Amino acid sequence: MSSLFADNTERIGMRVSSCFNARRSTSGASRTCCRVALTALLAVGVVVSSVAISGCALRSRTLSSHSQSDEVRRFVPAEPVRWSLPNGLRVIFLQDNELPLVRGKLLIRGGSLWASEYPVGTTSAMGDGMRSGGAGELSADELDKELEKLAAGVSSSFSAEYGGVSFSCLASDIDRVFPIFSDVVLRPRFEKDRLALWKGQSLEGIRRRVEDPSTVAGLAFLQLVYGDSAYGKVSRSRDISLISQTDLFNLHRHLVRPDGAYLVVTGQISQSKVVELAQQFLGGWTPRGEPLPPPPPVPQEPKPGIYFITLPFAQASVKFGQLGVARFTPDYPAIDVFNEVFGSGGFGSRLMKRVRTELGLSYGVYGGISPGRVRGTNYVFVQTKAASTGSAIDESIAVLEDLQRQVPTDEELDEKKLAITNSYVFNFNSKDEVASRVASQELLEYPVDYDKTYLAKINSVQPADVTSVAAARWDPTKLVVVVVGNQQALAALEQERGKPGSRLSGFDLHKLGFDETASLPPAR
Q1: Fold held by 81-211+227-282
Q2: pLDDT tens digits for range 253-279
Q3: Which H, E and C letters describe 417-440, residue by residue?
């Protein structure tokens, strides 16, 4: 699935495009080689692959000049062909004869946000079971063998906001694979033994949550910020045990509908063939007839405080933050630049420079603003020694407060904007990604001119805009702070809270248990 699908994507840590972020090169000839190669590819409208660019990066540590940034801005990806079927299914097609392959994916609007009457986890089970549980005339085992024989792949999954089914095959096998793909979409069998297998795997995953402190911190943070709402639901063993085969069939009938869905096909195939296949196998798919209702609201503001979960780990894992904004608030370009400056720019971010490099308080630290469909989250994640738990949190908040008061320098901002601009081309690594990006942006209701205006908007962000985001979108006095650690971490946290002027002194400390999920304090 494209990364665009992920709500609350948390584009944090080392960027995929880190080869662009370095500011020096050991060889002028290497820089010229990369610049000429990239310019030639962009000039003829070829989608630049990450492999080709990485090859240049091995010889030259950077594409650092503004001239290369200008080249990226001039890049125009191929435009796919599109049409709609009478049942509302929208088709997006882009021919690609580079390899004798065909790829396709069906993107379907709707997910667990519209499945509140089912046990938590049913949407995930349904999405997985569409492919794994057999389809049409083929049992689950027969489906596995048929696809293996064809060296083809079909997969399916559903999440909170959307779902999808994808396929890939040799171009010569499309007449055999596309009917299987359509059966997975329209006629899944949801065989009971495969549902039982999914349940067993899910139960094992739930049992092992406590073995990973970052998982514990993340789940507890989700529960505390979103409360007992569709956004804060975390599955437990009892939820998994309640999911039935009937639930999967009923939820499939409810969610899997053509109106508002997108079929994306790319590869060595003609448009006329795609028209034929789509009409023959998906043209009779019955539409819902009316749009899904709006997603449920986020019902509450979380209660600020420090929430400590005692588990026997040598290091502490911390996640803190608060409710954030919806997607595409007017300042979304400034938010993206803020994220790069504050916590998503790898070793160049302020969090990493201060908390890890200068003070040595963290093994890893990152953070930012992650918008959501209704409301996303602002967050910072820190891993630290138990003895430095309190000081690592305090210093992380200090980095935020400093950015709220003082604008970044022009040099710092130019560096971050250049990194964002030069990494932009990685959204178009292949024609399949280009077509999928068009569909996913429409599915997730991106502005119609998003890609055409994004880089210009990023370039127009001023230092004061970044400070405005930090000040307007964060309130350091209303943070939810989740800490997972041992007694030494708790003692370090309490010691920090007792210091005069500590940023943690104003927060109440709550101790939570964790048994599959966090035991939340009573609602106010």
Answers
A1: Cytochrome Bc1 Complex; Chain A, domain 1 (3.30.830)
A2: 999 999 999 999 999 999 999 999 999
A3: HHHHHHHHHHHHCCHHHHHHHHHH
Q: Which amino acid is at 363?
A: Y
> Backbone phi, then psi, for 142, in 5-degree steps?
-65, -40
Dihedral of alpha carbons 43, 45, 48, 52, sign: negative
Query: Which tokens hold the place of 365?
Result: 């630290």
Check: CB of residue 190 under 8 Å from CB of residue 197: no
**Of the candidates 20, 29, 248, 19, which has an alpha carbon nearest to the alpha carbon of residue 125?**
248
CA 71 to chain centre: 27
- pLDDT of res. 514: 97
What is the number of helices (H) and of strands (E) in the chain?
Answer: 19, 14
Residues 292-311 pLDDT 10s: 999 999 988 899 999 999 99
Query: Rounded mean pLDDT of 141-157?
Result: 98
CATH class of 305-416+461-518: alpha beta
Instruction: Provide CATH 3.30.830.10 ranges for the chain.
Output: 81-211+227-282, 305-416+461-518
Give residue 400's region: left, alpha or beta (phi > 0; psi -120 to 50). Answer: alpha
pLDDT of 168 higher than 60: yes
Tally Cβ neighbours within 10 Å of residue 346: 16
d(CA 204, CA 117): 24
Q: Which strand (E) or helix (H) includes residue 30?
A: helix 28-43
Residue 500's contacts (CB-CB under 8 Å, 6 or more residues apart) are none
Q: Can you read off the two tokens belonging to residue 47?
A: 């989608």
